[in-house]
């Protein structure tokens, strides 16, 4: 057995010691306040991003490309791991969190623009992302290098995932759908590790969002509009 697993198992002992009495009210059910859909990436510490140390507070989903869809028998549908907490536990806030330097968006961009991918083995995920990212590739501003293009498309992908949720009949009007980008590259000019709000219920205008939500105006920003 590799030492890497032994190490994390030993750290779990500290976790168990700290949390052993945190589950008393959660033995039979849960009522998380927020669903967070994140990208599967070792650089994105999904719960830690939110400072979450409270079991039952955040329902965390992760997959390649922070997608909210899966392929069903009749086509793409909203994933059950997103719908479950909304429909069955009363959660009224869904956050779609992309991140700078996203490998899934990079692979999708390369596949769409050059017909290749340097990330073999994730073809299924790319096929789900391509329809959402392809219009963004065509709309990219001129003169962007590959890294900048990818980070623009990270925003575009988040926007598209928010749109899918807003168009879903099971996601009612009382549910807030918020799109954000986790920036560990410092692209947005703030501290690395900050989350920047780019979309709320389909509204993408930075000015409109800052006016509507002055309590978080310093955390609302975008790299581009289209």
Automatic annotation (TrEMBL):
<dbReference type="GO" id="GO:0008270">
    <property type="term" value="F:zinc ion binding"/>
</dbReference>
<feature type="binding site">
    <location>
        <position position="102"/>
    </location>
    <ligand>
        <name>Zn(2+)</name>
    </ligand>
</feature>
<keyword id="KW-0479">Metal-binding</keyword>
<feature type="binding site">
    <location>
        <position position="39"/>
    </location>
    <ligand>
        <name>Zn(2+)</name>
    </ligand>
</feature>
<dbReference type="InterPro" id="IPR036874">
    <property type="entry name" value="Carbonic_anhydrase_sf"/>
</dbReference>
<dbReference type="InterPro" id="IPR001765">
    <property type="entry name" value="Carbonic_anhydrase"/>
</dbReference>
<dbReference type="Pfam" id="PF00484">
    <property type="entry name" value="Pro_CA"/>
</dbReference>
<feature type="binding site">
    <location>
        <position position="99"/>
    </location>
    <ligand>
        <name>Zn(2+)</name>
    </ligand>
</feature>
<dbReference type="GO" id="GO:0004089">
    <property type="term" value="F:carbonate dehydratase activity"/>
</dbReference>
<keyword id="KW-0862">Zinc</keyword>
<keyword id="KW-0456">Lyase</keyword>
<comment type="similarity">
    <text>Belongs to the beta-class carbonic anhydrase family.</text>
</comment>
<protein>
    <recommendedName>
        <fullName>carbonic anhydrase</fullName>
        <ecNumber>4.2.1.1</ecNumber>
    </recommendedName>
</protein>
């Amino acid at each position: 057995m590799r030492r890497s697993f032994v190490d994390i198992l030993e750290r779990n002992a500290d976790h168990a010691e700290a949390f052993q009495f945190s589950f008393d009210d959660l033995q039979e059910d849960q009522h998380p306040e927020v669903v967070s859909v994140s990208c599967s990436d070792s650089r994105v510490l999904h719960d830690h991003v939110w400072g979450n140390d409270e079991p039952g507070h955040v329902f965390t989903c992760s997959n390649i490309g922070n997608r909210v869809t899966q392929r069903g028998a009749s086509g793409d549908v909203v994933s059950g791991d997103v719908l479950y907490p909304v429909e069955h536990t009363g959660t009224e806030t869904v956050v779609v969190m992309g991140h700078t330097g996203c490998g899934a968006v990079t692979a999708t961009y390369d596949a769409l623009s050059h017909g290749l991918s340097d990330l073999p083995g994730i073809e299924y995920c790319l096929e789900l992302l391509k329809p959402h990212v392809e219009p963004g590739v065509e709309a990219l501003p001129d003169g962007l290098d590959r890294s900048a293009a990818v980070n623009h498309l990270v925003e575009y992908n988040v926007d598209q995932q928010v749109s899918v949720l807003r168009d879903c009949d099971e996601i009612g009007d009382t549910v807030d759908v918020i799109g954000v980008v986790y920036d560990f590259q410092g692209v947005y000019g703030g501290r690395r590790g900050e989350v920047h709000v780019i979309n709320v219920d389909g509204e993408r205008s930075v000015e409109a969002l800052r006016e509507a939500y002055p309590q978080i105006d310093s955390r609302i920003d975008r790299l581009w509009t289209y």
